[in-house]
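All the exercises in this workshop are built on plain-text protein records. A record pairs a protein's sequence with a compact description of its fold. Read left to right, the backbone structure tokens trace the chain's path through space. Once this layout is familiar, the rest of the handout is easier to follow. Here is such a record, shown just as it appears in the course material:
>
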Amino acid sequence: MKNQEYYASTLDLLKKYSGQLNKMIEDGSFYCLPYNKRSMHIRQIKRFYNKLRGPIGDKYLISILAAASILVLGVSCDLLPGGGNGPPPPSQDITAPTVVLLSPADEATGIFLNKNLVINFSEAVFAGNGSIRIYDSFSTLIESIPAASAQVTGLGTSVITIDPTVDFDYSTDYLVRIDSNAFKDSAGNFYVGIADNTTWNFETTTSLDFTPPSVLSLSPADGLTGVPLSTNLVINFSEEVVADNGSIRIYDSLGTPIESIPADSAQVTGLGTSTITIDPSVDFAGLTNYYVQIDSDAFKDSAGNFYVGIADNTTWNFQTATIGPLFAAPVQNPFGLTNVLYLAAPTFADLDGDGDMDLLAGEYYGNFQYFENTGTAFAPAFAAPVQNDFGLTNVFNIGIPAFADLDGDGDMDLLAGEMGDFYTGYANFQYFENTTP
């Protein structure tokens, strides 16, 4: 009786665990278990099977054999039964980051003394426990910079910048090594590092130039007025300059920032020469005062000496031109003109052919008043008006004249709009052909 109870309870456990294993194989979850967990499930069932070896236990052998084959073959989550109806396979990144670009480039020469080290990786990287180590050509350690320090920026991206605490010496060979545990990707794969003396080395500039660039001229000149709205900013330096990290900043006279233009942007041209042109992205406003500031790290010469920049609002300021014409206060009836009845609708044409512009004015009751210009084209003086001269007749209330060569015969014809009929509301155009031979 005791043996029967033992076998019955053991069989129940075998059924239970065998059923669980079959279900996990069917839904795919068994495939995604770590190796040690798969082994544990198989060992558990085999333990009960061995106690029931023979006719009672053999029917459960298929579960053990199926699970064991999966374990041995290393079937993974992406080969789930039933077309992949199990848990999604875990992504497993085993590819380590690689270097795409180094700056300064390996074997580069003439490197500025304040140059930062920049590494472009194949993917985003994070800091490990290692360091970046800078040596001179005698393998003397110059500086060791932990990858996790504040001197290393860009972590979490693929572009890493290392800022040494002191500038390099001039005319010196340097090499850089990187520990194999300095940088890793999000999956924990470490960049292999640089352990030799040849992968990344460079030579600094041989120049003993310690004189910073200075400005010879600015355009627009400081204090200039009437500056065109589409003007570019131009700086003439005392020597050739290149861009660094700073910007050119444009403000209006109230100190409102208008635009900040990085010195290394496409809006700045002439880099590598002594003439730098800055092209603002939008035109200036009309009749507005502006000043320009330049960061002290915007431009430097080939020896790494920085232009001191402009930090005030008086060194470079200018005023733009007006937009279009600027009208003075009105003058009533100038040049000898007199008023007309109720409505004045003027237009100009050289009606007497003497080379200056005469005035024809429509008025409220449909008549046209002709004011001959008895002065000149540059100093007009108009005679007293003559009503409906040149054979003109009045139109139906409010004549508004306009001249054009409407028939293409080389002279000016007149087309007059008139006020609409009070009852019908229709307004007509009256055409006066110029029939002068």
About this structure: The longest helix spans residues 2-27.
